[in-house]
Amino acid sequence: MLWEAAQGLPDRGWPRNKESGRKRHMRKADRFVKGLSVGSLCLAAAMCLAGCGDKSPLDPGDPVSLTVWHYYNGSQQAAFDALVEEFNDTAGRELGIYVQGYSQGSVSDLETAVRDAIGGKVGADDMPDLFSSYADTAYEVEQAGALANLSDYLDEEELAKYVDSYIEEGRIAADGSLRIFPTAKSTEIMMLNKTDWEPFAAATGLTLADLETMEGVTAAAEAYYEWTDSQTPDVPEDGRAFYGRDAVANYFLIGMQQLGVEIFQVENGKVTLNVPREELHRLWENYYVPMVKGYFGAYGSFRSDDVKTGDLLAYTGSTSSAMYFPNQVELEDGSYPIDYLVTAAPVFRDGRHMAVQQGAGMVVSKSDARHEYAAVEFLKWFTETENNLRFGCVSGYLPVRREAASVSELDRVIEEQGLEVAPKTYDCLTTVFGQMEDMTLYANKSFENGTAARKVLEYHLADKAAEDRAAVEEALAQGKSLEEAAADYVTEESFEVWYGAFCEALKQAVGE
What we know:
There is one protein chain. By secondary structure, this protein is α/β, with parallel strands linked by helices. 47% of the residues lie in helices and 12% in strands. The chain has helices spanning 21-34, 38-52, 74-89, 91-95, 107-119, 135-143, 156-159, 164-169, 194-204, 214-230, 248-258, 277-285, 288-293, 303-308, 369-382, 385-395, 407-417, 423-435, 450-477, 482-486, 492-510; strands at 64-70, 97-103, 130-133, 188-193, 243-245, 264-267, 270-273, 314-318, 328-331, 334-337, 340-344, 354-356, 361-364, 440-442. α3 packs antiparallel against α16.
C-alpha cells in the first residue's frame, strides 16, 4: 500500500532533516513574538482564555508555528498568502498561532511531497501541520493513521455552520469522524463563446434553453457541425466541434447520478460497482458518439484552451476555471475579441438535478493537542464568511459556510471590502448560488483504490473516442462521408465491446 511506510510511526515521528521545519518556523514565530509588548501579550492571553475557556492549549507568549502545504498558484496563491498574513497579524497574534504557507506547485506535486514526507524519503521536507487534500488521497493517509481527528475540536454547533454535504465528504474515518476540513469547494458550470454562439443560434433557431440537457447539447453540436460545414460548400466534411468537457470522470459520476445510479456504492470503506447497461448507453451516446463524429472535441490541455483557439464554442468545467476563459479567439491569421456566457451545467433529460461537488479541503497531520487545536483555529478563521468569500472572489471557489452561499452575502463583502472581482468569476459564483436550492451536490465516498477507479472513468472512454476519431478523420481524408467513416464505430456492437471492456477495467481497478 502506498502509505505502508508510515505504519507504526509514533505521533510526530516523522523523519527529520538536519534542521526541522518546525525549528525554522519557530524562528519566524520568535520574531513575531518580539513585536508584541508585554501588555498586548497579556491582553491576548486574556482574550484567548475568555473565548476558549480552559480547553485552549494555546499560549500567546509561546506561539505555535504551523506550516501549510497547498497547490495554489498565481492569483489564488496571492489571495491565500494575503489571508494568512492577515490571520498572523490579527487572530493569530491574539491566540498565539503563526502560519506559513507553501505552494507545492500542482496537485500531483503536492501529493508527491506528502508521500515523500510520510515515507521518509531522503531529502524530503518534514511533514506539514496542514495540507490541501482531495478525499481519495486523504483516505490513503488516514489508513496510515497519520491524520488528526478533527471531530475532537469541533462541536455540533460549529459543524452546523457548514454545508452538510461538505462535512459529510470529510468523514472518511472508519468511525465516521471528521478528517477533512472543508475550506473551498467548486462545482461545474457551462461557459460559451457568446460572440460566435449568437450568429449560429440566429441561423438555426437554437436558444440557451436547448443547452439545458445533455441530449440538447449533443443535438446542438450536430447542428453546429453541419452549419459550419455549410459555410464552405466546396470543402466537404469540414464542420467544427461545438462542445467539450473537462473531467470526464465527473461526466460518469454525475451523469449516472442524474439517471438515478451511483457507480461506486461504498459501505465501511468497501466498494460495490454499479454499472447498468442502459444508463451507460446513454452516456456513451452523448459523449463517445459525438466525439467520434467531430461534434464534440478535446484538443488542448483544457477545454478553455480549445475555446481560445476557436476549436470549441462551449465547454463544461469547474467554477474555478472561469478565470481562464479567454477574452479572444486566436487563429493562425489573426485574433478577435469574444464575450462569454455562464450557464448551469447540462443535465440528462428527465434526470435529477445533480452536480459534482469537488475541490480539496485541508487535513491536519496527527501530532499533539496544541498543534492540532491551532490548525483547526486557523481553518475556522479562514472559512469565516467574509474571509472565505474574499478568497472565492479571486479563486472562483465556493464558500463552505451555509450563510456565505448567497448573492446578497457576496455583494455585501464586495462592497464592504471594496473588492475588484473579475466579471467571469462573479457571474460564475452567482450562477451557482442561484441554483443551490434546486441542486444536489454529490461527491463519491472514498474507498481503497478509489484513485485507480476514477482514472478508468477519466480515460477509458475518452482515449477510445480520441483513437476512433483519428481513424474517422483518416477515412474522411480519403473521401468518405462522415456517415460512412463513422458507421463502424457507432453501432450497438461497438457499444457492447466497449461496455464489456469498461466493466472489466473497473473491476481490475478496484481489486475485484
